[in-house]
Write a structure and sequence with these properties.
Elements lengths: L6 H29 L1 H32 L6 H24 L5 H24 L5 H34 L12 H37 L3
């Protein structure tokens, strides 16, 4: 069987996912501020389509990697365990939106996946498993942090967008600025920062991996 290494594709897919989350978060916030929950829910359904699509691809590659073990030894565990779980998170999120369900349970799954990814990254850094340990650690921490912060974001999203939409409440664009609102908004801003940081790091590492893969394809 020929050696197959989709590392560059995996890295770029991570960048695309993070970029989609960042863009969707910004547009969702602006939409909610201007038009309320109904228009925001339409935006949520729209962004679930590309996330679900790339989630299917990610999950497929993750399953293939778990079954075939194309990389040397423990690198299969490091690269494919979190990748497969990420695909599951994306697909289940898209399914939750499609079936008009609350998203916080997917957010909890994302948080557990993110915490596991950070754990993998820290262990890999301590063991010196890659040629660029700091870049690898930064990527795992940034992506893992984004996933962990997805949980409070989905709780807030359910409360402000999903439940009002499912219950047919009148759309109201203005909400009182209470302490929980401020805390939630701070978590949302942190989520956006982690997302854009993940996209940048993944693009940098993916760009560095692309040339060697094109020059000397497996």
């Amino acid at each position: 069987m020929a050696f197959i290494d989709p590392l560059a594709l995996q890295l770029f897919s991570l960048a695309f996912i993070s970029g989609l989350l960042f863009y969707s978060g910004i547009i969702g916030y602006v939409t909610y501020s201007r038009y309320g929950h109904h228009r925001t829910y339409e935006h949520l359904r729209a962004q679930a389509v590309p996330l679900g699509g790339i989630g299917v691809a990610v999950m497929g590659i993750g399953i293939w990697g778990e079954l075939s073990w194309p990389l040397p030894g423990s690198y299969n565990i490091l690269f494919y365990d979190p990748y497969l779980l990420l695909g599951v998170v994306l697909v289940t999120f898209a399914a939750s939106v499609a079936f008009r369900l609350r998203t916080q349970y997917v957010g909890l799954l994302a948080a557990m996946t993110g915490a596991l990814s950070i754990y993998y990254g820290v262990n890999a850094y301590n063991l010196g498993l890659t040629k660029e340990p700091l870049a690898m650690l930064a990527l795992y921490v940034a992506l893992g942090g984004t996933a962990v912060l997805t949980f409070p974001v989905t709780i807030f999203m359910d409360e402000m967008v999903v439940v009002p939409e499912l219950e047919g409440q009148a759309s109201v664009s203005e909400k009182p600025i209470t302490l929980p609102w401020k805390i939630a908004f701070g978590g949302f801003v942190l989520f956006l920062l982690f997302a854009v940081g993940s996209a940048i790091i993944a693009l940098i590492i993916g760009g560095g991996a692309l040339s060697p893969h094109l020059t000397s394809a497996p």
